[in-house]
Amino acid sequence: MSPTRPILLAGLAFVLSIPAVEAGPVYVASQGAGALTRIEAGAGVVAASVAVGQGIAQVAAGPDGRLYLTQPDHAGIDVVDGRTNAVLRRLPFQGQAFGIVASADGASLFVGDWAGGRLVRVSAGTGAVEGSCAVGRDPAGLVLDRKGRLYVADRESRQVSVIDTARMERLATVPVGEGPFALGLNPRQDRLYVANVRSGDLSVIETGTMAVIATVKVGGMPYGVATSADGGLVLVTNQQAGTVVVIDAASLDLKATIPVGRYPEGIAVDGVSAYVANWFSDSVSVIDLRSLTETARIPVAEGPRSLVVGAVSEAVR
Fold first, then answer.
1. Which residues constitute the signal peptide according to the record (predicted)?
2. Which of helix, strand or coil describes residue 156?
3. 120-130: pLDDT as tens digits
4. What is the C-alpha to C-alpha distance for residues 260 and 248, in angstroms, rounded to an integer?
5. CA torsion sign, 278 to 28 to 117 to 76?
6. Which helix (H) or strand (E) holds 92?
7. What do you get for the CA distance between the two ends of the chain, in Å?
8. How is the chain split into domains, by residue range?
9. How many other CB atoms are found less than 10 A from the CB of residue 292?
10. How many Cα atoms within 13 Å fall on the side-chain side of residue 41?
11. CATH architecture, domain defined by 25-314
12. Dihedrals φ, ψ of 133, to 5°?
């Protein structure tokens, strides 16, 4: 199944104490339109839209304000300056680039080769290959921790690969549910949450032991996962139901089910808000994490699937 294929296949409110912080811009990758949209999160408005070419899969933010968008069907990675809305270049990639994350210093990109079953480290400036290692089949979501360990959701291998990025070696594999697609680390980075699309559940991995300590049934098709800034909430998009399921991180009990747009996929959190890419509704839902309700639905370019929150300093002056 291609990563760019169409799939053929009443919420409760709770008041939480979550500190408010200044919101950064939200960048949304729209696969159908081939566009990158910037939403000024504090105002909830679209500030810019940049054409980068159809077929975008995932977007990652670098520390210098640059955005990186994988093009699985075009053997490349598009680079956009989020401050000036300029498309800078397309980096070459030998394979089918899908999941992507930037290193902490912005010098390197870690890219999952969907067709090749490998993780590749490339230069963020030139695209030159700096190293690679084998992972499982159809590597999807990637997440990098502060120690330089990278986690890869190997969708067709029912596992998460754990990579030492300094040596580009696989340290471990952790069996999870059916069709792991998205990953989310909590702020303490002692828990990794894995959204398993086909088994309709969430695997909870203790990163210290690399063991699954719980499996939470969420139903439907969980395609995206994120945590609140304080780590108290886990938010999972249910593509099939058009909802976001909110789970209490301590008890792993359901707290709320929030209706959003059709076929929600990517989800990102910034301060007191979560942002959800509604693939079939061409919109981004804004969720208030204090009331656990959808407060806005912002129209964006066709086919939004992935999004990322940038730093406040990246906003255009």
1. 1-23
2. helix
3. 999 999 999 99
4. 19
5. positive
6. strand 86-92
7. 42
8. 25-314
9. 22
10. 30
11. 7 Propeller (2.130)
12. -155, 155
Can you read off the two tokens belonging to residue 257? 């089910």
The whole-angstrom separation of Cα 76 and Cα 300 is 24
Displacement of CA 82 from its chain's centroid (Å): 18
**Distance between CA atoms of residues 105 and 2, nearest Å:** 32
Instruction: Write out the chain in H/E/C secondary structure.
Output: CCCCCCCCCCCCCCCCCCCCCCCCEEEEEECCCCEEEEEECCCCEEEEEEECCCCCCCEEECCCCEEEEEECCCCEEEEEECCCCEEEEEEECCCCEEEEEECCCCCEEEEEECCCCEEEEEECCCCCEEEEEECCCCEEEEEECCCCEEEEEEHHHCEEEEEECCCCEEEEEEECCCCEEEEEECCCCCEEEEEECCCCEEEEEECCCCEEEEEEECCCCEEEEEECCCCCEEEEEECCCCEEEEEECCCCCEEEEEECCCCEEEEEEECCEEEEEECCCCEEEEEECCCCEEEEEEECCCCEEEEEECCHHHCCC
Task: Share the mean pLDDT of the chain.
Answer: 91
Structural tokens at position 288: 């208030």
> Which tokens hold the place of 301?
């370019």
Residue matched to tokens 């909430």: 233
46 contacts 32 by C-beta, under 8 angstroms: no
CA distances from 112 to 121, 168, 267 (A): 9, 13, 19
Contact 306, 58 (CB under 8 A): yes
| CA angle, residues 133, 135, 139, in degrees to nearest 5 | 120
**Both structure tokens of 19:** 């500190």
- Structure tokens, 309: 């929150």
User: What is the C-alpha to C-alpha distance for residues 243 and 233, in angstroms, rounded to an integer?
Assistant: 16
pLDDT one-digit tens code per residue, 8-53: 222 322 223 333 445 679 999 999 999 999 999 877 889 999 999 9
Residue with tokens 């999952």: 112
